[in-house]
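Morning. Coffee machine broken again, so started the prediction first thing and wrote up yesterday's gels while waiting. Chain of 299 residues, entered below exactly as on the submission form.
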Amino acid sequence: MFRLDTFRPATIVGALPNTIANGQTADAVPLMADLNHIVNQVNANAAELSLTPQLANANTFTAVQSGVVATAAANFPIASQVQNAALTTLSSVAGDNTITARIQGLPLGAYTRGQIFSFVPAAGNSGATTINIDSLGAINIGRTLSSGFTVLNSSDLVAGMVALVGLTSTATRAHLLTPATSEFPVGTQIVFQQTSAPTGWTKVTDVAYNDAAMRIVTGPVVSGGLNNFTSTFGTGKSTAGYALTAAELPASALTTNAGSTFDLTTSAPNKTVGGGGSHAHTLNDFDIKYIDCVVGRKD
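Came back before lunch.
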């Protein structure tokens, strides 16, 4: 309830300039002088009317004047605290995988399911992470996936980027509600069709990845082969030299001038024919069209 401050005329209006006795006849001049004196005294000395908050017996809130921020859970918050989310924003954030912080507006009394807090990490995390708010105890931060609650991956929290966490039904875990900064764990390798890897990725420059073809497999991923892509494919290519063996010669017969016939595969005249050299074939259609790509590794 509220109580109005009361007027106290005796302390505001001094003695009247004219005293009119009982039964005395007076004209308007002294009467108006007295009335004007009262008006002037009130205007000069009366304090402005104010409302002082008074608490009812059943009201457990502490009286907080307008413009005074709440500093305890029993105080009325002011509009700026609500507008600035001072009661749900964490400050004094420190640590990377072991984070400590406090409520910006006033100390948190206890962890309660459904509470949601926002904060700006002081550093990126490199793996499983906990948070301790107002020294109430460290709780794990994670994500809820189809497989259940999962601890954070490296770089799920990034320095300078706002993170939002919500407490679980048992208030023993904090779910990271903001989207993952990266859907890829550190070390993931992906092919990019551009000269440089994008931000957050490092271009792989190992010699095994240069001028190589890509093979899709269903088993373990390995590398192999000796010849570079451009050494095998392109214009002006030819096969390696190769010399035929006797077994690879086609069946044929020779006829002598006397009319005798010799089967070269079974019997032959005592005569060697050919030099036994190798030969190669030119490949005219090996200039295969290609697009260069790079492999990027997630930082």
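DSSP finds three helices and 17 strands in the chain. Going to sketch it on the whiteboard this afternoon.
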